[in-house]
Amino acid sequence: MTAFSISNSCPRRLAAPAACLAILSAVLIVAAVARPDEPPPDSVGIIEGESISVTGPTSVEVVRGQPKTLLRSGSDVRVRSGAARIDLVEGGQISICGPAHLSLLKSGGSLTIALDTGTIHVHIERELPLNIYTPLIQAQTVAIGDAPRDALVGFDSSGAMCIRANLGAIRVEQQLTGQSLLIPQAGDVFLFNGQLERLRSSAGHCVCDLQAEKEAPPPLPEVSQLATADEARQKAPANKANPQPATAQPPLGNDGPIYQVFMPPLIYDANAKVQPEVDPKMIVLVRRVRLRPTLIFQGRVEGPAVAAVAPPPSRLPAPATAANPPKPAAPPSDSFVNRVRTFVRKLWPSG
Fold first, then answer.
1. What is the domain extent for residue 94?
2. How many domains does the chain have?
3. Which of 32, 40, 126, 172 is the most buried (most CB within 10 A)?
4. Is residue 122 assigned to a domain?
């Protein structure tokens, strides 16, 4: 009995740690699979804009194949011109109309915006506490039930502060005196020098609209199908009625020389005060040209046909000439007798 008990106790002692190790591994694997790929807890949102600069803690994420800048708690944003857009991690959007300068701080699940200049338009869908600080005023959005919140806070060109509660209410507090008031939904007020006593109706002094997300629609796949017999008959007469001669386009080629420079790689030495220069003897210049082939004509080269010009018709018909024209008469002999005879005839022509 003793030998049996000793031989049976060893497998039991070895099996207990192995079972615990297997259970612990399974728990870790399930936890790793069940945990979603969430951003860090201090992440604020992804910013997009044309003329912006961001300093402070940030990170880069790939969204739909494009790198995006993820703002984190402590980020400082400056919009030089135009507008910028921040898509919040919890859902919602912050539009910044420049020129503007602000800082973001996220702690304990609440978001704080320190607005120095410019105008912001905030739209929040979920229960995210939001506080907006300016040099003299603190504004806090207040939700009505579970409805979203939409607020506008900013400064105009004169430096006066605009506050507009589009959805929900806004609690405004003067940081120096502690005086506070509640702006109801659809309220639009105007503050001078941070004094709540000089509260006036804003009537749309500050304008900053929410920006729609620019997403290019995916290209539709093109599916080619064979034409039916009826479609082929309808297209055939149309193609034959207006035949267009095919004009051969000469190939576009570059017959000029091509220059190519080969040089050794540049070397950078962090320890050296003066970087070594490239030896000009190691630079090679290659010139490539294309030889033109000799033109050889074979066959017959014909020029354009020249039309024959007909001579103008003559006004008087030419007299018909006999087949055997008469021989010209021989000139008379110039003797003395002939001269006397000619002289007498001129005196008496009738004789």
1. 43-201
2. 1
3. 172
4. yes
- What tens-digit pLDDT sequence spans the chain (351 residues)? 434 333 444 445 545 555 656 666 665 554 444 444 567 888 999 999 888 999 998 888 887 778 889 999 999 999 998 999 999 998 899 999 989 999 999 988 899 999 999 999 999 987 889 999 998 999 999 998 889 999 999 998 888 899 999 999 999 999 888 899 999 998 999 888 888 888 888 776 788 988 776 555 555 555 556 667 777 777 665 555 555 555 555 555 556 788 888 888 888 788 888 888 888 888 888 888 877 767 666 777 677 766 665 666 655 555 555 445 555 555 555 677 788 788 777 777 655
**What is the DSSP code string of 259-297?**
EEEE-PPP---TT-SSPPPPPGGG-EEEEE--PPPPP--
In a domain? residue 53: yes
Say if residues 69 and 44 touch (Cβ distance below 8 Å).
no
Q: Which domain CATH number covers 169?
A: 2.60.120.1440
Amino acid at 278: V
Q: Is the dihedral of CA 176, 177, 181, 187 positive or negative?
A: negative
* Whole-number CA gyration radius for the chain: 52
pTM summary value: 0.52
Within-domain flag for 180: yes
